[in-house]
Amino acid sequence: LLRAIISQNLKSWEECLTFVEFAYNRSVHSTTGFSPFEIVYGFNPLTPMDLLSLPMSERLNLDGKKKAEYVRTLHEKVRASIEKKIQQYTRQANKGKKKVTFEPGDWVWLHLRKERFPKKRRSKLLPRDDGPFQVLERINDNAYKLDLPGEYNVSSTFNVSDLSLFDVGHDKDLRTNPSQEGENDAITAIRRDPLALPSGPITRGRSKKFKEALHGLVLSTQEMFKDEGNPAHEKLVGGLREYIVNIIQVQD
């Protein structure tokens, strides 16, 4: 409003402040349906047009009790108007958004907000996400408690907007549903695992997928390593050894 009034006369902005303030306080706001001045005092301030011989507002001559009742009713109308406007804004903001919820036991990525993790976001080149972390408790649809290591020194409760689902992949299904007799689908899953990255630069997106696949591989093979008497144990170890060599070559 001030910019529109002063136009090119930038040095005269101080002289316009009084008029801009009056115009703002006298204008009806779309959210409340009333002017800020009327909400506070119960009537609008006089303008030069009011100096003419026109009928004065009835509310200017009300006694104290009636005026207080009018202001109370006015505030109720303003509150209802604001709530209605908020609902409209909420519907517009949530239009097209998909509701995301997690359950205890799910694994999620955590977005590292700069104001909450200043040390981990001190450089633009540092990762903006960390994890995956396991969901311990769903407080409500918007807040979740994570199994966060103590070294972070922050509250373990996060908003759903800072979380994204960790996709382990299909390795578990390949192992629990063997397709051929005498073979271990764990080895097949390793050969088809997305960790076998093609040659080329390691971008941020590919690094994240690489980390997801590696963590999924560790989770899904953890139980198999507990029993070294398993006939497929040596074969699995050999496959993992070959796989790690390929990973090192890709990183180099």
From TrEMBL:
Domain of life, source organism: Eukaryota
GO molecular function, one term: nucleic acid binding
Pfam family for this entry, one: SH3_Tf2-1
Tf2-1-like SH3-like domain: residues covered: 105-164
Record-linked Gene3D superfamilies: Ribonuclease H-like superfamily/Ribonuclease H
InterPro entries: RNaseH-like_sf, RNaseH_sf, SH3_Tf2-1
Protein name, entry field: Tf2-1-like SH3-like domain-containing protein
